[in-house]
Write a structure and sequence with these properties.
5 helices, five-stranded antiparallel β-sheet
Length: about 850
């Protein structure tokens, strides 16, 4: 030891006597260097002296410093390292010294556990019958192919992960599961052998490569035995090789969870400047690697490679140009699609057959105008037909007396052919709150149906009278407060009545709904919802100022079967044990439908309350009635969906709430009823949507901070219209864009009129054809035609048609309900944000 110290002392003495230029590193830049003990950004004599003092025991150095002094990589800081440092200070070339030091982090195994009972379950139940599980319960798959559990997982970093399912299989045969990641069409088959008893638990695993972030892991049964009982799924980071896709794993994309319509490419050209903007649909069933080739008059003009937009501005195109598009996948041309329409003047006119004027019992006469529209594929050809409700000039709000003309429902092709007319008859009153008609493919045969409330004297599209056509239940005040009430399913192609049942709930005693003259008893709403997570149901509703009743039905092509009924006055309780009476008086003049709790099933957002997919109350905020609400993933930085609603009761104003729990995220108050409100991502760079109302201090962000002026900002409707992923505002047919400079009009059509009085709504907005941007349907001022406008703007974004997002598609269906509200998609759209894939399968194919 004495000899060692003498050597070190001698070295120290020699080094102190040396006369040389030290400090080869540059001045301090904040970078930590090998050999830089005093962290001044250079390695010089001071560091050599300090190291010498440490080695002779006259100075202490921390472990973090010693890591920077291990130049020879032997995991020790010793005399050899000091000699290397000395050489560096004497300007010799040596390894590491003076270079940037990067601390090596030792990766610890990451294990993430997700209990099956907390996941999304399709065709299965949670149980506690068999012992040995570790969560609150386990999941028992139904004994059928396709039953599944979908886990939402959050992966901390990109890596290979071992996915392990803890299971029990007390059957006599193995129960294999296919593992799907996100919306991929590829799967991994994992075998779950018998364990000997349902109380005997085992594990089986598969290694998959996962990127950082949130993913869905879907485990789906592939035999009629279903799957094993499932306890939990773990993810553990591993260096093992990721599994290869199963041998027959490339399945047709679109074998997703929810039924959707078959759609063609919807290829259209629109006059845009001196050329034509040509666009077509990407489908939710297209694989990511799909390529498209666009031809004008047989000449290739554009190739849309994967991730490139399905939009092309053709400078040489004109109104007479004929376009076709080829779809190429897996190296093969899958289809060649012809044009749906050419919008030579920027719009497409659909001629209408306007009903004749009608004379009332009191001698007055009404005329007709085209009002709320809907859309659906009546014949299964992949193109939409348009459904029109004709509104008489004497239609009434429920609070006002007076006779009204009959309500008619028409269907037209895009070429203007009238397919049918339904006459709802004298016993259905006209007005925004009476006839809510739902158009959707309810039975999954690839063709839509129309469902609405009917009465004695309704005449279907083939001339058949429903009930007793001789009955006239109108009072001298024009109200209809007695007589039969029906619910009818009509064929979407012919208008023929397929099934008629009694309307539930019956009106009963009129005064039990809140007044005795017929206002509140006839407040109707309706919607379409995926209550089982796979197929659409229709939900018919009555009442919202006081009593509220919602009834869900399934149509199987023959029978209309009641799924459930929710009644705020039946003495029942919600899922938290609170009385259903808490849900009275909470409705708005519209509904919304969304999977608010991310369980795979849709809920009904009924104003200030929410009804779960099984017909049980989920929550009620108690904030009461209002005129408008909007539901979407407005704040992408927080989990789940949000609801923006305006309120009619003090302290008025608007609230933003968590859609799943009803928790108020922020509220602004106002001095009066706030009649309208709007929400959408209208401003890029704000990390979420913006919110405003007809009363308030301006435009708010998701925290309730005013970030801009709401001057000249409409509050009635929203639309995706221009080139970016931000949304625009719509009032009638006028499109307003919002930027950091405020609001400005970018589209203002002439020759058309809006619907619904002061609500100033279009007849319909929807992604009817072309790419993912929305079309506007207005009626001409004389109602001789419907005029469909489509965007003239190019875009750099490829996105599947919004109609293959089922929340958006349901919203298009319920858009005509009472005070029309714009359709919102289930995911956030904005510049710089990742867009999702669709989880659908095609009905009737």
């Amino acid at each position: 030891m004495k000899k060692h110290k003498l050597i070190m002392a001698s070295l120290l003495s020699i080094s102190l006597c040396l006369n040389f230029a030290s400090g080869l590193a540059s001045a301090d830049t904040g970078t930590v260097l090998y050999g830089d003990i005093d962290l001044n950004g250079v390695v010089d004599m001071t560091d050599l002296t300090a190291y010498s003092q440490y080695l002779i025991g006259d100075k202490e150095l921390g472990e973090d410093i010693l890591e920077r002094l291990d130049f020879n990589g032997d995991n020790d800081s010793n005399l050899s390292d000091m000699m290397i440092l000395k050489q560096y200070v004497m300007m010799d070339s040596v390894p590491l010294v003076g270079t940037e030091f990067k601390k090596t982090e030792v990766s610890q195994p990451v294990e993430l556990k997700y209990f099956a009972c907390d996941a999304q379950i399709y065709n299965g139940i949670t149980e506690t019958v068999n012992a040995g599980y570790t969560g609150e319960s386990y999941v028992n798959f139904n004994n059928e192919t396709g039953s599944s559990i979908t886990f939402n997982v959050d992966v901390p970093e990109e890596s290979n992960y071992k996915l392990t399912l803890r299971y029990a299989n007390g059957g006599t045969a193995a129960r294999p599961l296919n593992f799907f990641v996100d919306a991929s069409s590829q799967y991994y088959t994992v075998n779950f052998d018998v364990t000997g008893a349902w109380t005997q638990w085992s594990e089986n695993s598969v290694v998959l490569h996962l990127t950082k972030g949130q993913h869905t892991i879907k485990t789906e049964s592939i035999t009629s035995d279903g799957g094993p009982n499932a306890d939990y799924l773990t993810l553990e980071k591993t260096s093992d090789t990721a599994a290869s896709v199963s041998g027959s794993s490339i399945i047709d994309k679109g074998n997703g969870t929810r039924q959707a319509e078959y759609l063609d490419r919807g290829l259209v050209s629109v006059k845009s400047g001196d050329g034509m903007l040509v666009s077509w649909r990407t489908l939710g069933t297209d694989i990511d690697a799909t390529t498209f080739k666009l031809y004008r008059d047989g000449t290739l003009v554009y190739t849309s490679n994967p991730s490139e937009p399905t939009t092309y501005w053709d400078a040489q195109g004109n109104a007479g140009s004929v376009y076709t598009v080829e779809t190429i996948a897996d190296g093969e041309t899958k289809q060649t699609s012809a044009m749906t329409a050419a919008l030579a003047d920027g719009y497409l006119d659909i001629p209408l057959k306007k009903p004749a004027d009608m004379t009332m019992p009191d001698g007055t006469t009404c005329t007709y105008s085209a009002s709320d529209c809907s859309t659906g594929d009546a014949d299964g050809d992949g193109q939409y037909e348009i459904y029109v409700k004709w509104d008489p000039s004497n239609s009434q709000d429920n609070s006002k007396s007076g006779y009204t003309g009959n309500v008619y429902l028409d269907c037209y092709t895009l070429e203007g052919k009238q397919l049918f007319r339904i006459d709802l008859g004298k016993n259905i009153r006209a007005g925004a709150h009476y006839t809510q008609y739902m158009v959707y493919d309810f039975d999954g045969n690839g063709k839509c149906e129309l469902i609405c409330k009917t009465a004695d004297g309704t005449v279907d599209g083939r001339g058949t009278v429903i009930g007793d056509g001789s009955k006239d239940y109108r009072s001298s005040a024009g109200y209809i407060l007695s007589g039969n009430e029906y619910l009818t399913v009509f064929d979407g192609l012919t208008g023929a009545a397929l099934k008629t049942i009694n309307y539930t709930p019956a009106r009963g005693t009129v005064s039990s709904w809140g007044d005795n003259y017929g206002n509140r008893v006839d407040r109707f709403l309706a919607g379409v919802a995926y209550l089982d997570g796979k197929k659409p149901s229709v939900v018919m509703c009555r009442g919202y100022y006081t009593r509220a009743v919602l009834v869900a039905y399934d149509w199987d092509g023959k029978d209309l079967k009641q799924r459930w009924i929710f009644d705020s006055t039946d003495g029942g309780y919600d899922k938290k044990g609170k009385p259903n009476s808490d849900y009275s008086g909470q409705g708005t003049h519209s509904v919304s439908v969304a999977d608010v709790d991310n369980d795979g099933f849709d809920e009904i957002i009924y104003g200030s309350c929410c009804i779960d997919h099984d017909g049980k109350g989920l929550y009620s905020t108690g904030l009461g009635h209002g005129d408008a609400l909007h539901v979407s993933d407005f704040l992408p930085e927080r989990p789940g969906l949000e609801v923006w609603q305006c309120h009619e009761g003090a302290p008025y104003g608007c609230t933003l709430r968590d859609a799943a729990t009803g928790q108020i995220l922020f509220r602004y108050t106002a001095d009066k009823d706030t009649g309208r409100c709007a929400a959408g991502n209208i401003l890029p760079g704000n990390n979420g949507a913006e919110f405003w109302g007809s009363r308030g201090a301006g435009i708010y962000d998701g925290s309730g901070t005013v970030i801009g002026s709401s001057a000249n900002c409409p509050v009635n409707f929203m639309i995706f219209w221009d080139s970016d992923l931000e949304r625009e505002m719509l009032d009638g047919g006028v499109v307003t864009d919002y930027t950091s400079n405020g609001a400005s009009v970018i589209f203002n059509p002439s020759g058309v009129a809006s619907c619904n009085g002061t609500k100033n709504t279009p007849n319909l907005t929807a992604d009817l054809f072309g790419d993912w941007r929305e079309e506007i349907i207005m009626h001409t001022t004389d109602s001789s035609a419907l005029r469909i406008f489509s965007t003239p703007y190019s875009t750099d974004t490829r996105l599947f048609t919004l109609m293959h997002d089922t929340q958006y598609r349901c919203a298009v269906a319920w858009q005509n309900t009472a005070y029309d509200q714009p359709p919102h998609q289930s995911f956030f759209m904005g510049t710089g944000y990742k867009l999702p894939a669709a989880d659908i399968y095609v009905a009737g194919k």
